[in-house]
Design goal:
Elements (H helix, E strand, L loop, with lengths): L4 H13 L4 E2 L9 E3 L1 H11 L6 H15 L6 E7 L14 E10 L4 H67 L5 H34 L9 E3 L1 E2 L9 H6 L5 H22 L5 E10 L4 E9 L9 H67 L4 H36 L14
Parallel strand pairs: 2-5
Antiparallel strand pairs: 1-6, 3-4, 4-7, 7-8
Length: 430
């Protein structure tokens, strides 16, 4: 089977483009299964049910190329004349039997142009297949990011429960010492119980994210996957000019360019079909009445006073012009879309860096100071709870922004069909 080289390149791009997360996590239980992003992409390509039908479409398109390359078959004809005449030519006595073999000779390079149309259709089918594979791989990256987010939220929930338990123990000591009313202990006990509920919810969300990822390779009950990669640190990005330079290699434009090449091939075939074909025949004739044989040679050609295929030519030209116009319009639209998404990605990156490098360290330090002061009786319960809520809100915000960054980056890579190569340099071992 013929697979277009361009299509194969798109899949390699997708495999490389998604490998930007940083190795960090390992399995923590006997039942847990750590999965890396490359492994998830490989499983998806090999076992995804949605891709199962495409190889058959490629085989059909490949068969069409074979069919288009076939020459017209010769024709065998048998003709009997002068039957049932008057005596002495009654019955078959005067019959003239002609046996002839004829062959159409295609002019105008029809066979080559016909094969060109079928080959262009095969290329289009191959690119459609690779586009479908890219879409599935992009979905796999998104679900892997969701799994990494869920794992980060689970780790934060465990940390939240630890903080709640520590605060409850501090309140217990203050109540035992008579330095605080029992209501403070009750409020912190309720806070600890809520943290336990949130931890269970985070565990269920991680199981759900695991199942959604495993569903891409046909597993319906896999809820123990753990990501082998973390969301942070965020990788660096190429410039917008570099992204625009890759515009013509975007999967959408590649597919439309393939469609344009198909339209061009169809126009050339329509023009070739306007030329006349020759039919050459050779045969033998036997005259029963005279018992003689003769050789026959024939040549025929249609008398096309006007182009009999002019309607098909006009239709093919219009289809080609439409395809070229659509590709130009799509290219203009992609420039705007890529610029808009790139700016959104930069905004997400900048916001994450502000939260991670400035706000979050301050919130962590503030909570630690107030927690120590609460144990010593310098701060109230309200101040402790407020500081913890502010810290946890920023922790959640950092996880959300990191996940959003990777999802936006994945979408940009899907649009451009190219990995952001600078990201690979950011991978570090913990």
């Amino acid at each position: 089977m013929h697979y277009p080289p361009r299509g194969r390149a798109l899949v390699v791009v997708a495999l490389l483009g998604g490998m930007a997360l940083v190795p960090l996590y390992a399995a923590t239980t006997a039942d847990a299964q750590t999965v890396s992003l490359p492994d998830a992409l490989h499983r998806t390509l090999e076992q995804n049910p949605a891709l199962a039908a495409f190889p058959y479409r490629l085989r059909a398109a490949d068969a069409n190329v074979l069919q288009a390359s076939l020459r017209p078959s010769p024709a065998l004809s048998l003709e009997i004349e002068n039957l049932a005449g008057d005596a002495p030519a009654d019955g078959i006595n005067a019959a003239e039997v002609t046996l002839a073999l004829s062959q159409i000779i295609e002019l105008g390079d029809k066979r080559h142009q016909r094969t060109g149309v079928a080959s262009a259709a095969l290329d289009s089918a191959g690119i459609a297949y690779e586009q479908a594979r890219l879409d599935v791989l992009g979905d796999a990256v998104s679900r892997y990011v969701a799994l990494a987010q869920a794992h980060s939220r689970l780790a934060l929930s465990k940390q939240t429960l630890t903080l709640a338990q520590q605060a409850e123990q501090a309140a217990q000591r203050r109540v035992n010492a008579g330095a605080a009313p029992s209501s403070e202990l009750m409020r912190l006990t309720l806070s600890r119980q809520q943290a336990e509920i949130d931890l269970r919810r985070a565990e269920l969300l991680q199981q759900s994210a695991s199942q959604r990822l495993a569903a891409l390779w046909g597993e319906s009950d896999q809820d123990s996957l753990l990501p082998a990669s973390s969301l942070t640190p965020l990788p660096s990005l190429p410039s917008l000019a570099e992204i625009h330079a890759r515009l013509d290699q975007t999967p959408t434009l590649l597919a439309m360019a393939s469609e344009t090449r198909l339209r061009e091939a169809q126009l050339r075939l329509a023009e070739a079909n306007s030329s006349r074909d020759l039919t050459v025949s050779v045969g033998a004739r036997h005259d029963r009445l005279s018992d003689s044989n003769s050789l026959l040679v024939g040549l025929s050609m249609p008398l096309n006073l006007r182009n009999p295929n002019r309607g098909n030519e006009a239709s093919a030209r219009a289809a080609l012009a439409e395809s070229e116009a659509l590709m130009q319009a799509r290219r203009t639209e992609l420039v705007a879309v890529l610029s808009e998404q790139y700016r959104a990605l930069l905004m997400t990156q900048e916001e994450y860096e502000l939260v991670e490098s400035r706000a979050l360290p301050l919130a962590r330090q503030l909570y630690e100071d107030i927690e120590v002061g609460y144990r010593a009786g310098r701060y109230s319960l309200l101040e402790l709870i407020t500081a913890r809520q502010e810290r946890l809100a920023l922790e959640q915000r950092a996880i959300e922004l990191a996940g959003r960054f990777h999802l936006q980056r994945n979408e940009l890579e899907r649009l451009t069909g190219q990995p952001f190569s600078a990201a690979g340099a950011q991978e570090t071992r913990p």
